[in-house]
Records
---
Amino acid sequence: MKMIKRFTTTIFAIGFCFTALAQEAVDMAAVQKIRKEGLENSKVMDLAFQMTDVAGPRLSNSPGLKRAQEWAMKQFNEWGLKNVQLEAWGTFGKGWQVDKYYAATTTPYYRPIIASPKAWTPGTNGVIKSEIVLIKADSLPQMDQYKGKLAGKIVMFDNSSIRMLENSYKADVKRYTEEELDKMAKAQAPTPGAQAPARAANPAMAAMMKMRAARMEMTKRIQEEKAGLILTYARGSYGTFFTSNGASYALDAPAVSPELEVSSEDFLRILRLLRAGQKVEMEAEIKTSFYDQDPKGYNVIAEIPGTDKKLKDEVVMLGGHYDSWHAGTGATDNAAGSAVMMEAMRILKTIGFKPKRTIRIALWSSEEQGLHGSRGYVAKHFGDPKTMQLTADQKKVTAYYNLDNGTGAIRGIYAQGNAGVAPIFQEWLKPFNDIEAKTVTIGNTGGTDHLAFHAVGIPGFQFIQDPMDYDTRTHHSNMDTYDRLVAQDLQRSATIVAAFVYHTSERAAPMPRVELPKPNPAGR
Amino acid sequence: MKMIKRFTTTIFAIGFCFTALAQEAVDMAAVQKIRKEGLENSKVMDLAFQMTDVAGPRLSNSPGLKRAQEWAMKQFNEWGLKNVQLEAWGTFGKGWQVDKYYAATTTPYYRPIIASPKAWTPGTNGVIKSEIVLIKADSLPQMDQYKGKLAGKIVMFDNSSIRMLENSYKADVKRYTEEELDKMAKAQAPTPGAQAPARAANPAMAAMMKMRAARMEMTKRIQEEKAGLILTYARGSYGTFFTSNGASYALDAPAVSPELEVSSEDFLRILRLLRAGQKVEMEAEIKTSFYDQDPKGYNVIAEIPGTDKKLKDEVVMLGGHYDSWHAGTGATDNAAGSAVMMEAMRILKTIGFKPKRTIRIALWSSEEQGLHGSRGYVAKHFGDPKTMQLTADQKKVTAYYNLDNGTGAIRGIYAQGNAGVAPIFQEWLKPFNDIEAKTVTIGNTGGTDHLAFHAVGIPGFQFIQDPMDYDTRTHHSNMDTYDRLVAQDLQRSATIVAAFVYHTSERAAPMPRVELPKPNPAGR
C-alpha cells in the first residue's frame, strides 16, 4: 500500500453503537462449501508464488508487472472467468527496471554494499570508481563549497537528520491482541467526510517534507555538477532496507543523477569513516532501463457474470493493487492481497456459484504512486470526485472490497464510517469467529484503493489484518519476498473474502450507502 | 566466539552455596576513580570503531587482522604500556580475503544476491554465467545422475534439511531478566572436570554433523566435475545471514570449488523456482586472495608491569579474541570484547595505577577456528593440557578474564565451578550493583578463550553478558557491524573489568584455584 498513515479515526463527539435493523441472512451451506475449498484445497500460495518468485518485482509499467498481468489474465481465463481484460486506466508514464546492480567499497578494504538503485534513476554508464565525497549540507547555499569538485564523483549526503541505529526490544512480527481488537470494535464513528490529517500536521512528516524539498534542490545541483552517483540513506536495519519514492516517471521528467538507496549498515559505515576523515573509495556498476513505448497504465479485470435477471447488472467488486516497489518482489505489498482476491474468485468459481449480481475482480496498477489504477478506473466508470458528477454505473456497484495490508489474516473489517453496513458485516463474520475474524470497526483506514471508491460514494472497504512484520520489515523493503507470506493467513483471508463477496452478491438489497461526499478539488 | 553451546552447566547432585570465609577487600577509592574514567571519559567506542569500520573484517591471518593488530600495538605504545608485541602462538595456515563479490540472477528476471564467498574458497576466475543446476542429493550415490553435467555450471544443493522461513514473534534483542539472573545465581556447581556434552549427543547437532560429512564428500565430487560455483544456504533472515566454517586454511589444503553462502531469501527464491521447473540463470564474479608467506598465527600482548617487589612476577591476565569472520566487521564477535579489554587497560593506565602484580592483556587470534591463539599461548607459556606437564609460570598467573559474548553489558561472572572465587567476585561486584552487575554463578560457560587457561588449571573466567542480538542477528553474520555496539554497555563492561583486574592485582593472596584437571588427550 501507499505509504501514508493506515488507521486514522477522527473522533466523533458521541459514541457509536451498531443497530441491527433486521437479522442479516447468512447462507451457512454456502459458507461451508467456501470454507472447505478455501481452507482445504487452497491455491493461494501457488498464486502468490507466480506473482513474486516467478514474475519478480512489479514496479508500475515495468516488464515484471507486465509478466504478472499476462499470467493473471491467463489464469483467469483458465478458470473460466469472463470479460478478462487488461484495461487502460489512463496515462502513467515510463516503466523502469534494474538490469545490473553492483557496488562495493574498495578502500580502506573491500566490502560489498547492500543497496538498490532508486526507482526511475539512470545507470552509471559503465563502471564508476571514485573516492566518496561527503557533502555536508542541509540546504542549497551550503552546497556552494562543492562547486566544481563533484564531476564524475560518488557523493554521499551528510545531514543533521541522519541517526545511528538503535536497538529495538520489540518483536518484528506481531498479531493483534484481543485488547487491540476490542478497542477497534469500540471506536467511535469518524466525522463524515473527514480526511486523514494532512501530512504537514505531523511535525516529523513536516520536517521530512521540508528536507525532501531541500534534497530535491541539492540533488538538482549535484546533477548540474555532473556527479557520477549519489548515495542516499535507506531506512531499515540488519540487511533490510526500505525504498522511498524514486525519481519522476513522467515521460518528460528532467534528467537526474544515478542514485543508490544504501542499507543503513553500509551507509553508516561509510559515513562514520568519512566523518572521521578516512578516505573511502568505491566502485559501482548500475544499469537500468526505461520503457516509454506505451505510457498507459493498465488494470487486470475479470468477472463472474451475474445470473439474476434483475440484479445481474449490479456489480460486487473486489481487488487489490498488483504493482509493487522494485527492491523486493512485492510479496506482502501486495501480492498477498492480489493472491487472496484471485483465490476468492477461484473459490467461488470452483464451488459452482452462479451469483445474482456480477462479481468483478480488479488488480490495480500504480497504487504505489498514488492509487492511480483504481482512481483512473473509478473516474472512467463511476464519476469524478472533484466535481461529484457521477455515471449511471456508480449506483450499480454495491460494494468494493480491498486487501492491501500485508500477509496478516483478516481479523475483521473497517466499516469506513458506514453505520448501515456494520451490523451486516458482523453477521457475515460470525461463521469465521472460530478462525479469529470477528471485529467490525466503524473507523476509517486509508492508504489504499478502497478510497478511490469511497471518494465517489461507492461503499469501499479494507479488511482489518494482523500487522505481522509489515511495518517493521516488509512494506516497501528489499525483504518483501515470498518468504514473508504465511499460508494459513492467506487461506483464511481468501475464504472470508469469498464469503463476503458471496453474501454481497446474493443480498436482496444493495449495500447501504453513506451520504455522498462533497466535491473535492484534490480529487481524493 | 566459537560456535558451540555457551551456557553449559552439568548439574551436581547437591545444591551449592557460596561461603565467604572472610570479607573480601574492596578499594572504594580506586573503584571511584575507575568508574569516573570508565563511565565519563570512555574511549571504548573509538577503539571499537578502529577495529571494525577502519580495519574491516579480521579473519585469521587476513590483511584486515594484520591492520588491526598493528593499530592495537601502536595504541598500546601510545598509552605507555610495556612489552608490547606481536607474539607468534604457532602455525595457523593461510590468510584469505574477498577482493570482489558480485552475483545476481538474470533469468527469469534480474535480482542481485545477498551472499558472501565462503572463507578460504577460491574465486570464479572472471565472470561466470550459467543456468543454475539443482542437485537433489543428500548423499554421494545420489550424485551419480549429475556425472558429466556440471562442468562450468553454477550448482545449488537441494536436500531434505532445507526449511522455508518461519516467523519469529520474539524480539531480536533481549537483556537478561531478574528471573534469569536469579536462576544463574542459584545454579548448582558443575561436576569438576565435566565437559560440555559432546556434540553428537544433541540429535540436531548429530544430524548436522552427518550432513556436513556427506556434504564434504559431495562437494569433492562437485570439484572433480569442475563445477564453476556452488551456492549453499546460509542461516538467517531479512538480509542477515550467518557464515559457517569455510574451506580448510591449511597450507596443503586440497583445491575446492568456489562457493557462496547465500542469504536465505535469495537461496530459497532460487530453490523454489528450480523445484517448480523454472529456468534460473545467474551471473557472478568472485575474486579472493590467499596469503601464505607467513603461516604463523599471532597474538597482540601488552603489559602494565607490576611494582610490588614480591608480587610483580605474578600476572593478572585479561583478553578476548581479536579475529572475526569475514562477512561482517566482527563488531560483537569480538571487537566488543577486545575494545572493552583495551579500554580497561587504558582506564587503569590513565588513573595512574601502579599495580602490585603485572597486568597483561592478550588479543588472541584464530579463536574462531578453535581457540588456537589462546591455546597456543597457554601451551607455550604455561603447560600442555594433554599431559598436564606445567611450566613454572603456570603458578604465576593468578587469573585470566575474558570477554566474548557480544556487546551486552556485564551482568556478573561465571565462577566456572571455582567455589573459592565466588564470594570474592560477589564482593567485587557490589560497587557495580547500581549499574546492574551483580550475579555470580558457579556455572560454567564455554566456547571461548578462558577455556584454554582453565584446561591447565589457571583460573579463567568469562563474564555474564546481556544476550542482546548476539544469537539472533550478529554472531558470525554479515550484520555484525559497529551499528550493533551499544556504548553504555561497553563502557560499563570496561569499568567493571578494570575494577576486577585492579582487585586481582592488589589482592594479598593469589586467586583460589580448583583441583588440577586430569590430562586430556583431546587437549582442551
Note: Residues 203-224 of chain B form the longest helix (22 residues).
---
Amino acid sequence: MTAQSTALLTDQYEYTMLAAALKDGTAQRRCTFEVFARKLPYGRRYGIVAGTARALDAIARFRFTDDDLRSLSRFLDKETLRWLEEFRFRGDVTGYREGEMYFPGSPVLSVTGTFAECVILETVVLSILNHDTAIASTATRMVTAADGRGLMEMGSRRTHESAAVASARAAYLAGFTATSNLEAARQYGVPSAGTSAHAFTLLHTGADGPDEAAAFRSQIAALGTATTLLVDTYDITEGVRTAVDVAGPDLGAVRIDSGDLGVLARQVRQQLDDLGASRTKIVVSGDLDEYSIAALRSEPVDSYGVGTSLVTGSGAPTAGMVYKLTEVDGRPVAKRSSSKETRGGSKRAVRFARDTGTVVEEVICLAAAEPPPVPMSLTAREVTVSLLRGGEPDAEAPTLEEGRQLVATGLKSLPWEGLVLSHGEPAIPTRFATE
Amino acid sequence: MTAQSTALLTDQYEYTMLAAALKDGTAQRRCTFEVFARKLPYGRRYGIVAGTARALDAIARFRFTDDDLRSLSRFLDKETLRWLEEFRFRGDVTGYREGEMYFPGSPVLSVTGTFAECVILETVVLSILNHDTAIASTATRMVTAADGRGLMEMGSRRTHESAAVASARAAYLAGFTATSNLEAARQYGVPSAGTSAHAFTLLHTGADGPDEAAAFRSQIAALGTATTLLVDTYDITEGVRTAVDVAGPDLGAVRIDSGDLGVLARQVRQQLDDLGASRTKIVVSGDLDEYSIAALRSEPVDSYGVGTSLVTGSGAPTAGMVYKLTEVDGRPVAKRSSSKETRGGSKRAVRFARDTGTVVEEVICLAAAEPPPVPMSLTAREVTVSLLRGGEPDAEAPTLEEGRQLVATGLKSLPWEGLVLSHGEPAIPTRFATE
C-alpha cells in the first residue's frame, strides 16, 4: 500500500504551471509555500493538526511511474515529462508536529525548495491535512465531552472507504479509545473492537419467529461473557433480561443503539442492578455528536460509539487550509485579492504560556527574524519544528502515540473557554510579528 | 490499484458475527441484505445513486491475502480464518443502476447469499455508496443551478486524497464538465483541465516587484492564447487589461477567484468587450455552492469552478444509507427499535410515470410478488436490475457515460418541484406494496 505513487493525486494546473515555469526559467527560483487556515471552521475555538505523518509519507512517495508519465503525456511536453521522470522532493519542510493545536494563521506546514518541486505537492498535501485535521479537531471535542469515558470510532460506513481508515487514525490521535476499522488497526496499530449488529440477532429467526436468546448464546459461545450484547433489536427490557439470563451477571456490557439514550440508560442500569449484573457496563450508540455526548454525561453511560458525526466533522468536514506561495528568492510575496489576502515571508510560531501552563498567545514571526521578546511572567515555546531537510526526515518522527500525548497536553493547556462546545472565538489570539 | 484487496476496509464486528455464525451453524442460512436510506438528507427532493460500479468492483476484490489473514488472526479462530482463505462472493446482487434517482426507502442494492458471504460486505459497500451518492446528489443540484453552463470540479484539496478521486467521478456522472483531478482522469477517463494558480503570478516577482505581464506571457507561451488567465492576484481591472494586452483579443478566458463574483463578472465583461475581447469567456470560482451558482445565472458568467461545497456534499456529506438484513431462509425479518424500524423481505421497485415522462410515484414490492397494478394513464418502469448473479457480473455493466445519460434523463422526468433548490419533501412519494 505504502509503495504506491501519489503523483497523480493532484490537480492538473500544478503540472501546467510547472511546464510554463520550466520553459521561462523561473522553475528554479527558491520558494516557500505555507499551509495555513484563515479561520477555524464553524466557530471552533481551536484546531488539532493531523495528517502530518501521512503528508510526509505522501511526499516521499511522490515519484513518477511509467504509467503516471504516460497519463501526463496527454497534456505535458517532453521536457517536462523528462524532468518528472527524475523527480523526487529534495527541499525542506518545517511545521507543527502532528497533534499540535493550531489557530487562525498558524503556519502549520512550510515547504521550501525550488518552485518546481514545491508547486506540484499542493493538492495531495492539502487533501491529507484538510481531511485528517477536520476529523481530529472534531474528535477532541467529543473526547472533552465524554469526560474520561471510552469513545469508540465506528463511522467507516458513512465516509469514503479510504477516508474511513484515515478518520480512525485521526480519532485515535485525538484521544478516542478504539475503532471498528480493521485497516486502521493493521496499518496504524489503532486498537480495534467490535461484537455484533442487529443482523446477527435477526439471523436467529426460526419457523417459530425471533429467537434473541439463541443469538446471545451463540455470541457468548464465540466471544465469551465479557462481550457486549446488543439489546435493542426487539424490546429493550426483554433484551436485557434475556442477556443476563444467558450470560449471567458477569456479562461485559450491553449496547443500546436507538431511542432516547439517556432515559434508556437509566432504565437499563436499574434493571441490570436488579438482576445482580451491577458490573455490566452500558454502551450507547446511534447518531451521537459532541453535544449529545455531553448531554449524556449525567446518565449511567460507560462508553460511547460514534459514527457519522465524527467522520463528517460534525458540521465542519474540511479544515479549509490553503497552500500559498509566501516567498520567492528571499523576497516575501503576497496576493491582494479581497478577503483572500496572504502574508508574505517564511514563518515560524512561538506560543506564550503562563507558569501554570495555560497558553495565552501565539506569535507568528518571520523564520529568519529574531525570536519575539517574551513578556514578563510568561514562558515561550517554539511550535515550529524541522520535519524534512533536503527531502530526508529530520529527527525521529513522532509516533501516533506521541501525537496522542501531545493532543492531551495541548487540551490541558487551553484557557477554560477553549473547551466550551458552543461556537465562539479562537481560544487564544494569533499575533503577527512579521511586518 | 484495482488489484488491491478490500477485505479489511471493514468493521471488526462483521468478522466476529461470522465466527459466531460459523460455530452455531447459522452461517449458511440464505439471507438478503438491503441497502436503503430512511430519508433524503437535509431536505433534498431526490437523490442520485452513485458508486454502484465501484461497489461491485470492491466486492470482486473482496479476497483475503496472507497479510489480511495474519492481521485478522489477532481475534479470529482458525476455522474462521480457513473459511476466509477460500472466500469469494458467489451470491446475487440486484439494485438501481448507477445514475438512477432514489427516494426514501428505495431498495438501492440487495445482496442475497449465505449470511456468511453477505454480512462481511456491509461496511465497504456502504462506504462507497454513501460517499459517492452524497457527492453525485449534491452535484446534480449544481448542474441544475448552472442551467447549461460549464461546471468544473476542483475540490480535491478539501477532501481525503482518495475521496477526491471518487468525488471527481461522481461529479462527472452527475453532469459536471470536467475535473482538476488527474487520477480521476487516468482511472475513469473523466475529462481533466487546469491552467494556473495565484502562485504562478506571484512567482514572477523580481527585484522591481510583481510582474503580472511576465506570468501571463509565460503561460501563453506554454499553453497558447486559448488558455484561462487568472486575473485577480493584485488588481482585477489591471489584471484584465494586462491579460488582453499580452494575449490579444483571442484570449480564451479569464478567471475570477475572489470578491463579489456577480459585480466583478459584469465589470470584467464590459471591460473585455471594450478591449475588443468579446469572445473571451469569464470563469468564476471561490466558495461557490448550488445557491451562489443559481444567483449568478443572470450575470455574464460562462462557467463555474466548484470545490469545497461539492466534495463536502454542501451540508450533506454522507447519504446515510444502511445495510439491513431483511430476509432469512425466505422469511422476512425486521427490527423494531424505535425510529429505526426496517421492513422485511427482498424487494424491487417500479416507477410510475405519466405519458409526458414525468414520474409520479415509486412503488416498492416484494421481489417474489406479482408486479403492482399500473393505474390508468400511467406507464410503469422496472427500476431494479440484476447486477451480479452467482458472484459474476450480470449483463453488460453500464459505462460512466451511460450513467451520466441516465442522470440527465432522470432529472428531466422529475415534477418541477423536484428541481427546486430549497429544502422540502421528496419529489415523488414511495409506496410500500410489501405488506
Note: The first strand of chain B starts at residue 30 and ends at 37.
